[in-house]
Amino acid sequence: MAYEKIWSENPKLNKTEQKKLVKDGLKIFEDIPYYAENGFSSIPKEEWDSFKWAGLYLQRPKEDGYFMMRINVPSGILNYEQVKTLAGICKDYGRSVFDITTRQAIQFHWLTIEEIPDIFERLSAVGLSSAGACGDITRNIMGNPLAGIDPNELFDTSGIVKEVYEFFQHNEDFSNLPRKYKLSISTNVKNSAHAEINCVAFTPATKIINGEKVAGFHLKVGGGLSARPHLAKPLDLFIEPHQVKEVAVAITTIFRDFGYREKRHLARLKFLMADWGPEKFKDKVLEYTGTLPNKGEDALTGWNAGYFYGVHPQKQDGLSYIGFNVPVGRLDADEVLEIAEISKKYGDGEIRTCNSQNLIIPNIPHENVDELLKEDVFKRISIEPRSFIAYSVSCTGTEYCNLALVETKKRMHRLAESLDEQIALDVPVRIHMVGCPNSCGQRQIADIGLQGVLMRTKDKKMVEAFEIYVGGTLNEGGKFNEKLKGKFDTNQLDEVLFNLISYFKETKLPSETFFDY
Ligand code: SF4
Question: Is the pLDDT confidence value at 4 over 80?
Answer without folding.
Answer: no
